[in-house]
Amino acid sequence: MIYPLTGLLIGYFLLHPLIMVIYWFEFNLSDVSVDLIGDVFINRVKHSFSPDMLPMSLIFAFVGGLFGIVFLLYSRVLKLRKKLHDQNKQFIELDNIKSNFLHLISHEIRTPLNGIIGFVEILKKKSVTGEQGHIIDMLEASVIRLENVSCTALKITELRSGVVCLKKAEINVLEELRSRIYKYNKKIIQRQILIRFSPGLYKGQTFVYADACLFGTCVDHIIESALQFCEKNITIDGWEDSTALCTILEISYDWKGFHRLLEKNSFNLFGGSAIQSDNFTGLSFSLIKLICEAHEGKIEIHSSTDGGASVKLYFPFLEN
Which of 43, 57, 160, 210 is surrounded by the most beta carbons within 10 Å? Predict the structure, then answer.
């Protein structure tokens, strides 16, 4: 309130009398002196309290109060800008810390991991009992999962730091999907999963313009998660949107769907979601989002009303 009050007082006791002094000298020509200006100013201040001049004085006080409010708002804007700048600086520092942490963890994990992988390969060649073989298989699965986390973390760090050089080329979406899905044939057969391609995608005329390795990484993460969580059916559709100049790849499956907290936080590193699902949250979505953004695209996840879940990838189909 100090600024409006100060403006009100300045308007009443300074601005109005000064205007009246100027007005007085326009009609009373004489030699201007400091003493004369002081005397006239004091008389004008006293005169501003007279009944005749009080309405005009109040108007000047009101104008001064408005200027005070403007200065008050301006000072608050400056404070908020400074606070926002400081918070943004902290966020950048935290972002760098997260990237450095991921890079460090990725490298520190891979060294002992290579040794574990070597011992697992040796154990697999040994003659073991059924229970021992089961334990070795579980150990191998855990090692593979840990290795995937390490590789994902390293790739996230590279994308966030901008050191990745994209080798873009035209990619046939159907051919890329088939080559990626082929790796999971054993799991597809074991779980009796039915994968359907849309008729439009089956024509093989849907393309994206992207880095083949990174685009394939996106497909791998989504297919792995779909195979893990779906009940029986996976549907893959793709089409080119000529208006948005992008290709949309949609992978849907009959799962209970994404919780609303996952839909909100799953793209953020260490997003703090109370619900976590292996492979489909945390680093996976963060990596896919970074890959899409590197290609000026995006990712969307949705829960459908019939209980299914879907993931949409947007990639350009023309060279940017």
Answer: 210
Residues 129, 228: one domain? no
Tens digit of pLDDT for each residue in 34-91?
666 676 667 766 666 666 666 766 776 777 777 777 777 888 888 889 888 888 888 7
> Which residue range(s) make up the domain with 23?
1-164
Using only C-alpha atoms, what is the Rg of the chain?
35
Q: Identify the H or E element spanning 137.
A: helix 130-161
| Number of domain units in the chain | 2
Q: What is the DSSP string of 17-58?
A: HHHHHHHHHHHS-----HHHHHHHHHHHHHHTTSTTTHHHHH
pLDDT in tens, 255-312: 765 554 455 555 665 554 434 444 444 578 888 999 999 999 999 888 766 667 888 9
Q: Is the dihedral of CA 267, 268, 271, 276 positive or negative?
A: positive
**DSSP letters for 190-244:** HHT-EEEE-HHHHTT--EEEEEHHHHHHHHHHHHHHHHHH-SSEEEEEEEEETTT
